[in-house]
Amino acid sequence: MPRGWNQCTARQLEAIAECVLRHTIIQDRYHPFDWIEVKTELFFDLAEVELLGEETLTNDNKACGQSFLCRYKGVEFLMQTWQLHSFIKQHLSWIDDPKAKPLIIFPYKQLLSAWQFTRHFPFVKKHWLAPGEMLQDFSWREYRFLQDYMEMYIRLQNQMTTMQQGVIDKARLVTISEQMLGARNHFLAVLFKADDMLLSRHNAITKKICDVQWQVILFWWSGMMHYLQQQFPHCFKQSKAKSGKRPPLPIELYRNIITTVQKESNGLNEDEVNGQTFYIVLEHLERLAKQSEEMEKLNRKHK
User: Fold this and answer.
1) pLDDT for 103-120, tens place per residue?
2) pTM for the complete prediction?
3) How many C-beta atoms surround the C-beta of residue 155 within 10 A?
4) Mean pLDDT score, 43-64
5) Which residue, 95, 115, 244, 287, has fewest beta-carbon neighbours within 10 Å?
6) Do 284 and 262 meet the contact criterion of CB atoms below 8 Å apart?
7) Which sign does the torsion angle of CA 100, 17, 202, 150 carry?
8) Angstrom distances, CA of residue 253 to CA of 144, 249, 260
9) Dist CA 71 CA 69 (whole Å)
């Protein structure tokens, strides 16, 4: 049994994603999403225990509890409900524990496209390699594109959820669904450093990634954002909202960030800043934000 997100194989992550997606789809106000049900189902899958049926244990002809008839490596046995809950608490509490270390290891090594026509050879198999560890090989420009496309996808997904809870406009839902797919396509194109022209013609990457795999990638992206927020808290610190609007993150203020980095980096132009590794830009911004915060504290102290 895996003891955390980063100990899971790709197959185990997909099992978690598939289970979460299925329970999310079937939930309603009478049957809310229940992590206990999810983890109960996942226990049998991840532990590779086959569930053969349920039985009611009796003691002197009186019902005394529910049990599960199971089989593990050819051996059949009964597992009582309290035992199952104990196993779940011991081995799967990390799935919905906000303090657990999130997924930061990208689970897919590479994707293989369909046959691609080229000028020199009739057909060539195209490989898209997974992003480097912790996105170390991503520039500030690429990271910013990832942020923008993911923010667009989440905003559209929230709009769709809100619409589905009220009066449904089918035409609008179709439009939002197409826009979500576009945001997802472009996010994956940047993530796998794919050829935009090839992607626009064939959606080759999207065809290789099903909804379950996309959910796994969302798990990973959430984990990466959690890691970055811990490493660069000032860069992701939200300012106070004005007039009821969502306050912008400093990381979203692209023009101000570029201008600041240009001033502090010996006159680098915008293209040169965009080409810098995004970790370097974040480290630079974190240092500047700390200095600015310390200056504000000193100014308030001397007023």
Assistant:
1) 999 998 876 554 454 455
2) 0.81
3) 14
4) 74
5) 244
6) no
7) negative
8) 11, 7, 11
9) 7
